[in-house]
Amino acid sequence: MVSPDSPTALAPRSGLLRSELDDLGVTLGPDGGTLRVWAENATEVELVLFDDTDLDWITDTIPLSAVDGGVWSITTAHLHAGRRYAIRVDGPSGAGNMFNPGTLLVEPYSKGLVSGGFEDWRSVVIDGGFDWGGVSKPAVPMDRTVIYEGHLKGMSKRHPLVPPALHGTYAGLAHPAMIDHFLTLGVTSIELLPIQAFATEPRLLQHGLTNYWGYNSLNFFTPHGAYATKANRREGPEAILREFKGMVKLLHEAGLEVILDVVYNHTCEEGIGGPRTSLRGIDNRSFYRQHEDGVYIDVTGCGNSLDTATDAASRLVLDSLRYWANEVQVDGFRFDLAVTLGRDAAHTFTPDHPLLRAIIDDPALAGVKKIAEPWDVGMGGWQTGNFGDGWHEWNDRYRDRVRNFWLSDVDYARRASTAPVGIGGFATRLSGSSNTFSAERGPLASVNFVTAHDGFTLRDLVSYDVKHNVGNGEQNRDGADTNRSFNHGAEGPTSDEGILATRRKAMRNMLGTLLLSAGVPMLTAGDEFARTQRGNNNAYCHDSPLTWMSWEHAPWQDDLFAHVRRLLELRRQNPALRPIRFAKLNEHTPSASVMQWYDQNGKTMAIDQWTDPSNRTLQYVAASTPEQEAFNRILLMVHGNEHPVDVTLPEIEGVSTFLSLWSSADETPSDTHVEYHPGQVVSLTGTSMRLFRTG
């Protein structure tokens, strides 16, 4: 573990690392606690202390003294573990400033919070002691990483083997029943939707709804209190933090990583006129992007955007990451709307932004997985493939191409007798998206996904042509209109067995593509047994059975789970499916996969076949160039139209047999592995896949 201020920490590259910004927040010592607050434009900063039980009873106020670099400081015996406190900040009026000496503000580096009511919070001094018992991070290599993205509460809320007292809690996620599910499935890394303290927007409260997903940050250092057990919530913030750390420890003991979805791009203070809970009252001009007249520059669509062109805002993010990665021992971060973090003083994205480079270069974050959502809603906001070395990115191009190939192209072909495009673009995504990510970054830069928390679930993708979001209170205006989905002949639930069978196969095809592609796969929680949200593609505001995972499954759902389990087992067993580097023509590249492409007749694909809409069949051969594992070669057949086809296995030097491992045409994964030979014909049903290992 490397302390942010240790001699081995990152050498200064920019102002965000200057020493004046060290040790912000409360640091406990022999003389009590020292509070340091950055508020460069303030004229007065005051510490406000509260009674331990009555959060409206102010017991003392103490002014802070201005020190170097815009920092205000106080050391006092009144700051001790468990102490409730807030700050008040005064400053000049005028465009861009929002000072109010009467407003009680959350101290940005708070490790604990308690609520005194809506928009009424108190910071709490935290000791943070915890016995890790020698448990260390699993450090799963990226080529073996399989991400499972889910909601902390929703995953365990309805699990019948999790005790009711633990339903929907940190402790519930680490219950043996949940760990058994993760391990049986075969995922390696649990990516949690936001667990940093967040608040619900007043607009949602007026509609009787809540911000369930949590993309509305209140504080970057405190775990969300509502996800702790009632017993620990009663005990207070120290116990909540212990429960969170206990969850991490138990998951690590099982070999599972914890990745946090972090929302640093904006806060719950919304636009001007929204709540003033922390940064807006401390130094609005410095923390939020705005024009000279004080109007916010909103590149997030959430009302405000954190201004990481200022050193203090960037340092706040970096220090938060260091805290979670070291003190709380999490294994990685997925950065929501990461482009916002990389915008400079002119609000233009640059991959060499000081904050983005600091996140990659900081020794305190070495070995931590860094995953960017490579877009926001501002000008130049779509940046997939443009982040620097060390970053992994959600690949929306992969998502769209896979959905098109298996869903909207098939829908189009039913109406026009042929698909709109050939198989070339799909093959590029299957083999690692080399047209999006540089050779230096390789296929592991791509985090592949077909679904995520945002949008249709896998089951809804194959069951609905349009969104059904009326329950969100916005007259079905919210949520994406372009989903590349296909209901296969009926909108929503149906009793037509033919449609249901086709939907099941479509799900198997997309899961097979996801888990057999080069890159890092991300599976959305519940897709392994076809969870539905009844066509709602923006269920962020529903904390209900609509969004909680159901653990009661029909036999066909258990069959789908068995397919996902088999696919992940095959991914582990076959290194050719998970290359670290892109292969180079006529060169030996260690830990790459040398790829060959054949048509349905077993012949090398011709150039015109890649773009021919009538050609939707290929054979993909990948041969590993291993450094640590034995040589391995696979052949994957892909057939993308609804008519059956006969495929001739290719003649490949050194290959005498093809062992069948998996087929998407099977309702239940087959335990019979049939051996074929070069030149032999294999019959494929319409829209299906089949995997072989060569011998």
From TrEMBL:
<dbReference type="InterPro" id="IPR017853">
    <property type="entry name" value="GH"/>
</dbReference>
<dbReference type="InterPro" id="IPR011837">
    <property type="entry name" value="Glycogen_debranch_GlgX"/>
</dbReference>
<keyword id="KW-0326">Glycosidase</keyword>
<feature type="domain" description="Glycosyl hydrolase family 13 catalytic">
    <location>
        <begin position="167"/>
        <end position="571"/>
    </location>
</feature>
<dbReference type="InterPro" id="IPR013780">
    <property type="entry name" value="Glyco_hydro_b"/>
</dbReference>
<keyword id="KW-0378">Hydrolase</keyword>
<dbReference type="InterPro" id="IPR006047">
    <property type="entry name" value="GH13_cat_dom"/>
</dbReference>
<dbReference type="GO" id="GO:0120549">
    <property type="term" value="F:limit dextrin alpha-1,6-maltotetraose-hydrolase activity"/>
</dbReference>
<dbReference type="InterPro" id="IPR004193">
    <property type="entry name" value="Glyco_hydro_13_N"/>
</dbReference>
<dbReference type="InterPro" id="IPR013783">
    <property type="entry name" value="Ig-like_fold"/>
</dbReference>
<dbReference type="InterPro" id="IPR044505">
    <property type="entry name" value="GlgX_Isoamylase_N_E_set"/>
</dbReference>
<comment type="similarity">
    <text>Belongs to the glycosyl hydrolase 13 family.</text>
</comment>
<feature type="region of interest" description="Disordered">
    <location>
        <begin position="469"/>
        <end position="496"/>
    </location>
</feature>
<dbReference type="Pfam" id="PF02922">
    <property type="entry name" value="CBM_48"/>
</dbReference>
<dbReference type="InterPro" id="IPR014756">
    <property type="entry name" value="Ig_E-set"/>
</dbReference>
<protein>
    <submittedName>
        <fullName>Glycogen debranching protein GlgX</fullName>
        <ecNumber>3.2.1.196</ecNumber>
    </submittedName>
</protein>
